[in-house]
Amino acid sequence: MKILVVGSGGREHALAWKLKQSPDAERIFCTPGNAGTAEIGENVAISAGDLRALVRFAKENRVDLTVIGPDDPLAAGVVDLFAMEDLPIFGPTKAAARLESSKIFAKELMRENGIPTAEAGTFERSDDALRFCDRVRFPIVIKADGLALGKGVIIAPDPAVARSIIDEMMNQGRFGEAGRRVVVEEFLRGTECSLHALVDGTRYRLLQTARDHKRALDGDAGPNTGGMGAFSPANNWSAELEDQFHKKIMRPLLRGLQEKKITFRGLLYPGLMIGADGARVLEFNCRFGDPETQAILPRMKSDLLPLLESTIDGRIEGCRIEWDQRPSVTVVLASGGYPDKYETGKPISGLSEAAKLGDVQIFHAGTRRANGGIVTAGGRVLAVTALGSTIQAARARAYDAVTRIHFEECHYRRDIALAATTNEREFIKTTSP
Question: Is 105 exposed, middle or buried (0-12, 13-18, 19+ CB in 10 A)?
Fold first, then answer.
């Protein structure tokens, strides 16, 4: 089979890496890809946002399956365009992808179907949002309605900060059209957990759990990022929570979508907050997570390709997924200054040395080839994943690999999965953000 993976980040490198292992994978294309995907497939200079060019390439090269990595092409309707040309593609339609591309749509759907989530107000006018803030208890969470590269969710500790954020989003265009409408919701206390599910329209199969580290700095300090690391399995998940997840979240969600005549086929991952009253939905994502994918796929023993095909064909219920029982830890190496301003073009050394370590996989994100070597080309540069007999062993191995990789102003968190090594089972955080 010829497979096209759309995107250029660590998630896409991980998907291409895993799909390449399939005995049915004849050729892998990545658009536009990065220095890592170039080592396992063929990079093609087409932007992930150039939907017409993607369709044209898939047709001309007789691609058997296209896998969409990032959220923007899904929100723009890339799956609908491929379907019009009878081209097989993994991902939800534009209507189904609204679960992620519109937080207001997702919030209203959850309300209608009794899905546990934060209490919230949705607003199209800044003065209405400001009046709502006068009546709520702080801290609160303010979310841009649309897609904002993982940075459109901001915690406001007091009314003054809330007023400033709302003005920046709704009046000053901080996130463009994505922030013209906002959701203002209560701040949920607890610990986060990411669940990925392959959904074929009516049925689904859960992948292994993971926990992401969103804040830029150690101790969960600093601004939100696209993710600074992850580990799998999550240490705050249980059989009881999984039972609640099926009954109160996934089944009502799929039922609610069907009532709206929306069929979801693809990867759905709800971000959850685990608190004293169980799991509540923070947000829905309609594609593989980043960096969760880099932590989950190295644990998957099963062939990913037939799982994606079964999802598209409505046959996921009959599929079994086999897992490596060892935990994994993923550490993201970022450019200095990320998620704000940063420089690129910094030469990267030590990749070969780090890759020689056992049970270590290095996924490229913001990289490119230049002058015979590999240089930085983005905010998040690399994701280093290691497996180990315990979470502590996996963590030690990942950081051993990280210390062998160097580029100017390299920044990474030193506490990824640290709490998990002490058998942390906390469900409620008592400190304010």
Answer: middle
Q: What angle do CA 380, 382, 386 make, to 5 degrees?
A: 130
Q: Determine contact, residues 349/411, Cβ cutoff 8 Å.
A: no
Query: Given 298, 318, 338, which residue is the final one in a domain?
Result: 318
| CATH code of the domain in which 174 resides | 3.30.1490.20
Q: Any idea how long the chain is?
A: 433
248-260 burial code (b ≥16 CB/10 A, e <16): bbbebbbebbeee
Identify the H or E element spanning 342: none
Total domains present in the chain: 4
Phi and psi of 81, rounded to 5°? -65, -45
Name the domain boundary from 162, 186, 210.
Answer: 186
Tens digit of pLDDT for each residue in 126-137? 999 999 988 888
Bridge partner residues of 215 (DSSP): 224
DSSP assigned state of 347? B
Alpha-carbon span 256 to 337, nearest angstrom: 42
Clarify whether residues 212 and 311 are in a common domain.
yes
Distance CA 164, CA 190 (A): 26
DSSP states along 388-429: -SSHHHHHHHHHHHHTT-B-TT-B--S-TTTGGGGT------
- Of 276 and 24, the structure prediction assigns the larger pLDDT to 24
Summarised one tens digit per residue, pLDDT across range 378-426 is 999 999 999 999 999 999 999 999 999 999 999 999 999 999 987 544 4
- Which of 262, 277, 266, 274 minimizes the C-alpha distance to 235? 274
Residues 398, 6: Cα–Cα separation, whole Å: 27
With a CB cutoff of 8 Å and minimum separation 6, the contacts of 430 are 189
- Is residue 331 within 8 Å of 402, Cβ to Cβ? yes
Structural domain harbouring 254: 191-318
Same domain membership, residue 240 and residue 258? yes
